[in-house]
Amino acid sequence: MEVLLATDGSSPADKAVSLLEKIGNRDGLNVTVFSVVSFALALEQGAAKVGHYSVEEGRRYVATAVDRSVAELTDAGFTATGRIADGDPALEIVSAAEQGAHDLVLLGSGSTSWIGQLMLGSVSNKVLHGSSSSVLIVHKVLDDDNGSVLVGVDGSAGSQAAVRCIEGFADPARTRVSVMAVAAAGASENASRLGIPDSEESPEGIKEIKEKVLAEAHDHSAVAAERLRDAGFEVDTIVHPGSPAELLLKEAESGDFDVVAVGARGSGPFPRTILGSVSDKVARSAAAALIGRAGPPTS
Predict the structure, then answer these.
(1) Of the candidates 256, 254, 245, which has an alpha carbon nearest to the alpha carbon of residue 278?
(2) Most buried in the list 34, 202, 250, 255, measured by CB within 10 Å?
(3) How much is the pTM?
């Protein structure tokens, strides 16, 4: 699995390295540590070192950051190399992920520097919407020895991509996985999809819809769990009727998960865009959020 780890040398960026060391599969990952000499960084570093804007000072700073992360990951048993680019951070990250055919873009999140503005600024929007790769954003790393992941599945291409990404990224010996599917309530929106005309007006029809939606949820969780178990993971399944956003977030908050993974775009109850109710809330509130991408974004 090809991973692009974006860094700017800040402590938020170091969180991504720490999570990788905690749960990452050392035998299956090729990590490219990537940094960008942006105008703001060249101005900041140049002003601090030589009193004026300096691309050279910016490049020296990011080269040091990249080399440090590569050395740390190599010492931890990963295959890691470094790369530097000049330009806009978000655009260069997206471009590097596409050119290198990376399966996952890994970033830390905090409150300072370009990498620290990921959740609310233009960098996050461009990376999350513009990248055809899955994206893993790390807010914090839990202080325990055992890794844990919660995967929300709904049978959509996005959630399947999230499952595949966890399968390739995480080390089964270091990570337990919980697979969660939610049978979304709401007769009218499910009736036509299930081929039950006018059932929302019939108590029997509504019951039939609920039963079929719950059965679908069990099927989605079973398929994902079987795939992950075949890959060597310890897996438990959770299936509930109700609101996907509410129940997934409640489970995420109560379970002390290192990563919560959902699909970015799906036809199922987990919404199709990163700004949807589930994906957006997970990306902002989970300790680390993996947003599975099934393919190139569409407008």
Answers:
(1) 245
(2) 34
(3) 0.85
170: DSSP letter: B
Domain boundaries, given as residue ranges, for the chain = 2-138, 147-292
The Cα-based distances of 127 to 61, 96, 256 in angstroms read 23, 11, 26
pLDDT one-digit tens code per residue, 70-95: 999 999 999 999 999 999 998 999 99
Confidence of residue 208 (pLDDT cuts 50, 70, 90): confident
- The CA distance from 93 to 288, in Å, is 19
Taking the C-alpha atoms of residue 91 and residue 243, their distance in angstroms, rounded to an integer, is 35
* pLDDT tens readout for residues 254-283: 878 999 999 875 444 443 344 455 777 777
Taking domain 147-292, whether its CATH number is 1.25.40.10 is answered by no
Spell out the residues 6+ positions from residue 145 whose beta carbon is closer than 8 angstroms to its own: none
Per CATH, the number for 2-138 is 3.40.50.620
Residue (of 150, 287, 137, 133) closest to 224 by Cα position: 150
Question: What's the chain's Rg over C-alpha atoms?
Answer: 20
**Residues in Cβ contact with 65 at an 8 Å cutoff, skipping those fewer than 6 apart:** 7, 8, 9, 13, 35
Q: pLDDT per residue over 119-144, tens digit each?
A: 334 566 677 778 889 999 888 899 88
